[in-house]
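Meet our chain:
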Amino acid sequence: MIDLEPLDCLVLPVVALARGPEDALELQARQRIFDKVRERPGIHFSEIVRELDYAPTTVRYHLSVLEREGVLSSLEVGRYLRYYPREQGERFLRDVLSPEEKRALAMLRQRVPLAVAVELLVNGERTHGQLTTAVGVSPSTMTHHLKRMTQVGVVQQAREGREVHVSLVRPEQVRELLKKYEIKPDLADTAVDVFEDVGL
């Protein structure tokens, strides 16, 4: 069991709680998984497996323990179950992020939604066609991602004649999440330049 009060075990090496070599290795793995989620809120299971190079069964076991102990929470967004850290409140553990922030982060962890968000931060409201050109995807792909971003409350769409206009619902929230969690685009150099224009 993880000692939750105080929560020093979540910040200091949890190996100190080990009762033997095997226990130490297990707790070390759990600490690394927790640290990865704290470092990248909204990360999903496959990313944790890939980045930490643990067996899926190992990651699944430790995530279940961390969730059961209340130090992590999860949220299903689309096809993925994403994980988020919790912190000690005045009396109980609490979520670090609001449900809206969790859903927004889940979108910003993906290449196309991230590019759309950056484009909207830089240029404000854009049409569906302008976003398709700027991001470099097909119209159907853009429609798919905008639908998902609209469902979770990141963007809003309004039809004017034959054009669909898109804007961010909470641009300052998106800007703050990008900055706080240092989410960088895995895109072309021009996208990096755009990040500099946004001031991130």
